[in-house]
Write a structure and sequence with these properties.
The protein is an alpha/beta fold. It has a single domain, classed as Rossmann fold. It contains 3 helices and 7 strands; from the N terminus they run H-E-E-E-H-E-E-E-H-E. The chain has a 5-stranded mixed sheet, covered by helices on one side. A two-stranded antiparallel ribbon has the order 1-5. Helix 3 (about 125-135) links the parallel strand 6 and strand 7. The two termini are about 20 Å apart.
Length: about 180
């Protein structure tokens, strides 16, 4: 696990590139898939990395698939990349749509999460997977905008405490 974390940190430092913003760009996944998978190509380590993209500023939907390719082909990790998508245009990556990232259920069997999101307002049915993953104490590599990964202006929202502007008390149960 330590070598996976070091590999990801090195990759993250190299991926901190600001690409020009072009909100007209969309990316299509295959019609039957809502996420991308990259099985380990060699030196299989039987570890699963889930990479969560979702920002309209730094092109995480381009960077994370490249990171997944490197992790699967050179380091032996199985990778799943998740993307922001408008549910009315299923299978089309839309980094400007802040309310849906299908496939977060992959976190139930993930060994590590790479989070590269910005101001997402995900529904409870999706946030529960992130919440459970974090409460289990699993490792996370958060890139750049993850300091403001989620945006819940409604302080009564179930996951408002993950919002970037949350000012209430955090209560973390001790295991």
């Amino acid at each position: 696990m330590k070598s996976l974390l070091y590999s990801l940190i090195i990759l993250c430092v190299g991926c901190n590139i600001h690409l020009p913003k072009d909100s007209s760009i969309t990316y299509s996944l295959t019609e039957s898939k809502l996420w991308s998978t990259y099985p380990a190509e060699k030196d299989r380590k039987n570890k699963h990395v889930v990479l969560v993209s979702g920002d309209e500023e730094y092109r995480s939907e381009e960077v994370l698939p490249e990171m997944a390719r490197i992790l699967s082909s050179h380091h032996g990790y199985d990778c799943t990349v998740l993307y922001a998508q408008d549910p009315s245009k299923s299978g089309i990556v839309d980094p400007n749509y802040s309310y849906n990232i299908p496939g977060l259920s992959h976190l139930e069997h993930a060994d590590i999460m790479v989070l590269f999101t910005r101001f997402r307002s995900l529904p409870d049915s999706q946030m529960v997977y992130i919440d459970n993953f974090l409460k289990e104490g699993n490792p996370v590599v958060a890139i750049r905008t993850a300091t403001h990964a989620f945006n819940y202006s409604d302080t009564t929202h179930s996951y408002a405490h993950y919002g970037w502007n949350y000012s209430g008390k955090w209560s973390i149960p001790l295991m």
